[in-house]
From TrEMBL:
GO terms for cellular component: endomembrane system. PANTHER family: ADIPOCYTE PLASMA MEMBRANE-ASSOCIATED PROTEIN HEMOMUCIN-RELATED, STRICTOSIDINE SYNTHASE-RELATED. This is STRICTOSIDINE SYNTHASE-LIKE. Residues 1-60 are annotated as: Disordered. SUPFAM superfamilies: Calcium-dependent phosphotriesterase (SSF63829). Residues 9-46 have a biased composition (Low complexity). InterPro entries: 6-blade_b-propeller_TolB-like, Strictosidine_synth_cons-reg. It holds the Pfam family Str_synth. The keyword Cell cycle does not apply. Keywords: Glycoprotein, Phosphoprotein. It comes from Seminavis robusta.
């Protein structure tokens, strides 16, 4: 914004009235008989009197109008020239339906705690003591996505270092860990790097039904594919799609997030969360997806999409637009609808693929039924299976900021953001797609597990991944 400039020349004055020749002559004669000091005094008095001449109402109004015009012009210039520099993603906007209205956390609900005997934590088995010179770095860093091979049942994870890692030879760990407590069961696994997926940031992945092809949603690169990943490095990572054409408009895929495979058609469905892509974290190899997500929340503009890729004809199309950070995905058994975690709307929605509602979106779980934003999502493979969405953290006091304050957030540099993510919390919401009944599993204080960002349903268990933890949680649904 430009500052209003002060008028150094003073206020506009009335033109002095012309004197008659007679009065002018009298003043001239008097000046010849008056000492010089008197002339100086009279001149100073005349100037003093002119300065005190009051402004008329019309003059004041004219000055104010000109000032407003100048301020408006400066404001317009600042918006056009400076806003793209200070607000590269655009200014904050008001959400049409208003910000999410979350419910408070119920501290009595601690079903996700280890003391109930349903939670197991899977850690990487260390072959050497930490600190040995020959110790390789841990592979299980930020294992957000957990997936299983449909034929062999082998467990895999995607890590923050863009690695596909297998976990095999799971063994109970007998010693008690002070951080975990004696009530939480601990299991260790042998970890093996299967493939390096490149320079991007893989967020979600699924095997095809035959287990021969792995599709990956990469926040930086788009939709990827690797055929026979166990033959790596012979089998290369392919970029399937990094842009999409919708009508006459072609746009880049800037924040691919999660992916699922249609159980009947074999089509690949994936989310493009935002038109704000991740940035590299300083000199590190990893990418900062949290900053991009925070910018998307602060701006409040729904640019998320649901996309479909058909491997049979290599065609890509847009199914749904206008989503507030489309995130995790789940699909029902007959492939009639897709469940989407719409993060910054604070809800889970259903996109209809078939039936009378085809092409429409309806709400399954609203923010008033949730303690915080949803992230990852998955649905069970059976006919009567339920869907599960993760809640990484409880809603804080800043989730309902006005648009003006969110503009200030957009002005903050990336290094100014705290990385603690608020108070520790871990939660999963279960929803029945048919009855829309819900229940929660949560660790209200994050004592045993916190910041759950990914969930995978496999053989009556929920496998809980995280972009921050160095372990995987396994929650037994049948106990």
């Amino acid at each position: 914004m430009g500052k209003r400039r002060k008028n150094k020349g003073g206020s506009p004055q009335k033109s002095p009235q012309k004197q008659s020749p007679q009065k002018g002559a009298q003043q001239s004669t008097a000046s010849n008989t008056t000492p010089p000091t008197s002339n100086t005094t009279n001149a100073a008095s005349s100037i003093h009197n002119r300065r005190r001449t009051p402004l008329s109402a019309s003059s004041t109004k004219g000055l104010g109008s000109r000032a407003l015009i100048i301020v408006a012009c400066l404001g317009y210039f600042a918006q056009k020239q400076l806003a793209p520099y200070f607000l590269p993603y655009g200014p904050a906007v008001n959400m049409q339906e208003g910000p999410p209205r979350f419910q408070p956390v119920d501290p009595s609900n601690d079903k996700l705690r280890g003391k109930h005997g349903k939670l197991t934590k899977i850690y990487e088995r260390l072959e050497h003591d930490v600190g040995d010179d020959d110790t390789e770095p841990l592979l299980l860093q930020g294992p957000e996505t957990v997936l299983f091979h449909p034929k062999s049942g082998t467990m895999y994870v995607l890590t923050q270092d863009a690695l596909l890692v297998s976990l095999t030879d799971l063994k109970p760990h007998n010693s008690n860990n002070e951080d975990d407590g004696a009530t939480t069961k601990i299991v260790t696994a042998k970890t093996t790097k299967v493939a390096n997926l490149g320079t991007g940031r893989p967020m979600g992945a699924r095997f095809t039904s035959d287990g021969k092809t792995l599709y990956i949603a990469d926040a930086l690169l788009g939709l990827l594919r690797i055929v026979n990943p166990h033959d790596y490095p012979k089998s290369k990572v392919e970029i399937v799609a990094n842009q999409v054409t919708d009508g006459n408009n072609t746009t880049k895929i800037l924040h691919a997030n999660d992916v699922i495979i249609g159980p009947r058609s074999g089509k690949v469905y994936f989310t493009d969360s935002s038109d704000i892509g991740p940035e590299r974290m300083g000199t590190q190899q990893s990418w900062d997806t949290m900053y991009a997500a925070t910018m998307d929340w602060a701006r409040g503009k729904p640019t998320g999409r649901l996309l479909e890729y058909n491997p049979k004809n290599n065609q890509l199309k847009v199914l749904a637009t206008g989503l507030w950070f489309s995130n995790g995905l789940g699909i029902d058994r007959d492939e009639s609808s897709i469940m989407v975690a719409e993060t910054f709307a604070g809800r889970v929605v259903r996109y209809h693929l078939k039936g009378s509602k085809v092409g429409t979106v309806e709400t399954l779980v609203d923010s008033t039924d949730l303690p915080g934003f949803v992230d990852g999502l998955d649905c069970g493979p059976d006919k009567h299976s339920k869907c599960y969405a993760t809640v990484p953290s409880a809603a804080g006091r800043f989730t309902e900021l006005h648009r003006i304050w969110r503009n200030l957030v957009l002005l903050w540099p990336r290094w100014a953001f705290a990385r603690n993510g608020g108070s520790p919390y871990g939660g999963v919401v279960e929803v029945d797609p048919k009855t829309q009944q819900i229940q929660y599993f949560q660790d209200p204080n994050g004592a045993d597990i916190a910041h759950v960002t990914g969930v995978t349903v496999w053989k009556n268990k929920l496998y809980l991944g995280s972009s921050k933890n160095n372990f995987i949680g396994a929650y037994d649904l049948k106990k």
